[in-house]
Amino acid sequence: MDTKADQASLPEFRAHFHDGKTFDIAAGNSLIAEKRARARHPGGYVKKVKLVREKQNVSAPPSRRAEQ
Q1: Between the chain's N and C termini, which has fewer beta carbons within 10 Å?
Q2: DSSP label of 45
Q3: Residue 39 carries which DSSP code?
Q4: Are 17 and 46 in contact (CB under 8 A)?
Q5: Could you tell me the end-to-end alpha-carbon distance of the chain, in angstroms, rounded to an integer?
C-alpha cells in the first residue's frame, strides 16, 4: 500500500511516547502518524505527535552565526 515514492512526498511526524521512545513516521496527517506509531509500539501511550521541520545547515547557535 505505501511505497517509498509515496512516503517521500508525505510530511514526517515524530511520535513521542511516555516511556521515552520516539518514532519518525511519514504520514498524511498526525492522526495517521499516531496510528502507525501505536502499531510499532503496542501497549505504549502516545504523549505527543509533532511535525518534523526540515533540518537547516546549523554549524553554530544563532547568536554566534552573526559573529562569524
Answers
A1: N
A2: -
A3: H
A4: yes
A5: 48
Residues sharing a CB contact under 8 Å with residue 56, sequence separation 6 or more, in sequence order: none
Q: What is the dihedral of CA 2, 54, 35, 8, to 10 degrees?
A: 0
**Nearest by Cα to 14 from 41, 37, 35:** 37
Q: Which amino acid is at 27?
A: A
With cell 546549523, the residue in question is 58
> What's the pTM?
0.67
DSSP state of 52: P
**Averaged pLDDT score across all residues of the chain:** 83
Q: Is 51 helix (H, G, I), strand (E, B) or coil?
A: strand
